[in-house]
Amino acid sequence: MKKLLKLSMLITLIHAPVHAQWNIAVLPHENTLGDPQWNWLSAAIVEGYVNAYYHVPKIHAVDEEYLRHKLGDTPVSSSDLAKKLDIHLILSGRYHIVGSRIQIETDLIHTTTGEVIETFTGQASVSAPLDAILPVLYAIPNQLNVTLTPHEKTRLQMPMFHNAEALRMATESMMALYRALRQSPIDDDLLTQAESGLKRAIQRDSKSAMPHYYLGRIYETRDKITEAENAYRNALKIDFEHVTARYRLALSLKSQNRTEEAMSELEQALQQSPINPDIQAALSGMFFNQYAQTFETITAQLRQAIQANPDDPIACYELANAYNELDRIDEATKYYHQALQRDSTLADAHFKLGMIAHRKGNHEKAVDHLQKAAAHNTQFTRVHFRLGTIFHLIERYDAAIKAFSKAIEVEPNYVIPRYHLGLSYLATAQTDSAYEAFQKYAERTSDDHRPHFQMAEIARQKGEHERAIDGYMRAIAISPVHIPSHIRLGYLHAEHQRFDLAIQQLQTALRLQPEHPDAEKILTDIQKWTP
Asked: In degrees, to the nearest 5, what angle opens at C-alpha 159 toward C-alphas 156 and 164?
């Protein structure tokens, strides 16, 4: 049954709440002087941003090729990017060279209006042109309220290349590769040109992961799987956090039927880019495919066990679990009931039937099974928490309070019941008890914004505005994409005539959700308060 457990762990990993991640589209920068020998730098700037933010899990940067792959060649508006790919911000800009210096200007663009929110500028020597984006790399996280760790700050400082000529060669080779891939059939001459250029770039600068990664893409295109794998591994030796190289390595391993290795690489990639849909889809697909291959073997063995010992409830229970893991609920229900026919006190079967009934919306039946599970000492110690959530759902708030309190008594270190206890107290207008429950939960967890938001709401309703502001700010510090906190904080600042702070919070809310139901009112208020 270990495979069943591993499948459950995967589902938890993919669907559990994760730290906020900003999706940024980085578009080509314009060569304003028009000197064609510097046209390659436009793509290099984009690659510089994308590579740098591999080291910041809360920021996921994508380039024009990614957008083309997802949306095709049809031009789309900034609002379309927000809707179709959940892009929060767009970066675009321009650059020019004067003598031996380069200046890069990057615009932060509103996804709803297409307007420039702010422009960041950096300068550097032409011998190290991407140094010009360093101040921008730090300014953008600050703009997004993303606090960089010391490790992330250090990694952002590391140059993508140490040799400007190698940067040019690798970038032009990358551009040739993309031109080849856009043609049908793929242009092999361009692939050869790109391969040669990348190898020359590696000879000039052995400390850059980027040419190894694109060399892997060329080998992959030519079905040279072993060479592609080696290239991706070389990229990861240089830059362990190169998420895309790890993702492509995993796909390469998968194509060689090296499933366990591929899943290990994908799990690591998911830690670095937690809401990347491509990584999530690849990982979940591999787990389910692997599980399906062993399912028939597992169930056949359990059926044999039932035939050998018809009175034993455990084989029926385990067979039900196998069906339950594949979401085959009707078969699972059948075998849980067969287990209970053999032993009506089998607490864990009651627990599982209670959860199935809850999923089907039969909450009273769910309560009955879960209460029996608790009475017969189920191994699922969180049965009281489950009861509490169902009682709250069906508005039996007093029963919910008792269940959550029991859950805390049984397992004091399991913190989430304290938050739900607060919600049930709120539902019964016991705001002081609710505040205390939220506070105790917040003291025991550092990565959940919700208790701070709830405490801020209670403080706001009591007219304690400064305490409310502090709570909303704490919520935003934990989850920069929590829109209600931005909006509440914005309007509280406005109420106290702090319009610059109010505008900042409301603009952030609209960047996160351009189609917010109150977007028109929020935009009107922003315009009203803008000097």
From this structure: 155
**Gyration radius (Cα) of the chain, Å:** 28
Taking Cα atoms as reference points, which of 309, 315, 356, 308 lies closest to residue 335?
315
The phi and psi torsions of 117 (rounded to 5 degrees) equal: -80, -45
Amino acid at site 224: K
102 forms bridges with which residues in the sheet?
97, 124
Closest Cα partner for 274 from 286, 263, 266? Answer: 266
Residue 303 token pair: 């059926």
107-129 residues labelled b (16+ CB within 10 A) or e (exposed): bbbbbbeeeeeeebebebeeebb
Q: What is the pLDDT of residues 487-525, one digit of tens each?
A: 999 999 999 999 999 999 999 988 888 888 999 999 999
CA distance 14 to 452: 25
Dihedral of the CA atoms 180, 184, 189, 191 (nearest 10)? 40
Phi first, then psi: give them for residue 28, nearest 5 degrees: -55, 145
- What is the distance between the alpha carbons of residues 110 and 53, in angstroms, rounded to a whole number? 20
Q: DSSP for 334-396?
A: HHHHHHHHH-TT-HHHHHHHHHHHHHTT-HHHHHHHHHHHHHTT-S-TTHHHHHHHHHHHTT-
List, for residues 311-358, the tens digit of each pLDDT value: 989 999 999 998 888 788 999 999 999 999 999 999 999 999 999 999
According to DSSP, the residues that pair with 508 across neighbouring strands are: none
Residues in the chain: 531
Report the 3 state secondary structure along 109-127. Answer: EECCCCCEEEEEEEEEECC
Q: Please, are residues 30 and 67 in contact by the beta-carbon 8 Å criterion?
A: no
Q: Which of 463, 394, 461, 474 is nearest to 434 (CA)?
A: 461
Torsion on CA atoms 170, 173, 177, 180, rounded to nearest 10: 170
Domains of the chain by start residue, with CATH: 22-160 (3.40.50.10070), 448-531 (1.25.40.10)
> What are the pLDDT digits (tens) for 143-189?
888 889 999 988 888 889 999 999 999 999 999 999 999 888 999 99
240 token code pair: 């362990």
Distance CA 494, CA 505 (A): 10
DSSP code per residue over 7-71 = HHHHHHHHHS-----EEEEEEEEEETT--GGGTHHHHHHHHHHHHHGGG-TTEEEE-HHHHHHHH
